[in-house]
Amino acid sequence: MRQIMLEELEALAEQARPGLQKVAENIGRTVKLYLHWSAGHYEQYFDDYHINVGQNGELFVSTDDFNEYKLHTYHRNSGAVSIVAACAYNACSVDDLGPEPPTDQQIEALAQVIAVLAKTLDIPIDGKSVMTHAEAADNLDGDTRWHEPYGPNTTTERWDFWVVKAGDEPGSGGNILRGKGLWYYYNGL
Ligand SMILES: [Zn+2]
Questions:
Q1: Range of 143's domain?
Q2: In this structure, which residues have their CB less than 5 angstroms from ion ligand 1?
Q3: Is-contact 68 165, C-beta < 8 A?
Q4: Ligand 1: centre distance to CA 140 (Å)
Q5: Ligand 1 centroid distance, CA of 5 (Å)
Q6: Residue-level pLDDT, tens digit, the chain, 189 residues
């Protein structure tokens, strides 16, 4: 796990773009960003994601090649970049995200990562291309070809960022993260 700044993130995304686009195209998809929480501790980082966001907004990469295949989002791993916030240990409901909920710094850093990757990889910041794991799990992009739904509207096996803060309206997490991402996209970092 190596700590990087946003400038380097942009460079890594630039290098990976042709490969990601080709892989996605070959299976009839577009390049996607998937947003996760780890359901682990603040200081725990995981190799299953390309980018880990720490408690204070620090960024870590598990690889320098975002084309590297990672197991992050069931049947949606190809042609995708995964970002995880290290948090949400023992999160049990939208009203209780546990003792280590997403921090403000983490949420802002996640939004900045969305902005940089969307710009560099030429991805629109919308609900089809930049998805939380909760949304992807329930196929909320309308693409039902890959797996049965297993998100908060069905089995709730995965519900990463269904909310950003405890007590938020269920399902609001994706729009909040994308909204913040759009702000950085248009206003700069
Ligand atoms: Zn996840």
A1: 2-187
A2: 36, 133, 160
A3: no
A4: 15
A5: 23
A6: 999 999 999 999 999 999 999 999 999 999 999 999 999 999 999 999 999 999 999 999 999 999 999 999 999 999 999 999 999 999 999 999 999 999 999 999 999 999 999 999 999 999 999 999 999 999 999 999 999 999 999 999 999 999 999 999 999 999 999 999 999 999 998
CATH number of domain containing 120: 3.40.80.10
Q: How far apart are CA 161 and CA 73, in angstroms?
A: 14
134 Cα–ligand 1 center, Å: 7
In whole angstroms, give the CA distance from residue 2 to residue 183: 27
Tell me, in angstroms, the distance from the centre of ligand 1 to residue 147's CA: 15
Q: How many domains, the chain?
A: 1
Closest CA to 177 of 137, 138, 130, 141: 130
Rounded to the nearest whole angstrom, what is the distance from the C-alpha of residue 132 to the centroid of ligand 1? 8
For residue 133, how far is its CA from the centre of ligand 1 (angstroms)?
A: 5
- What are the beta bridge partners of residue 2? 61
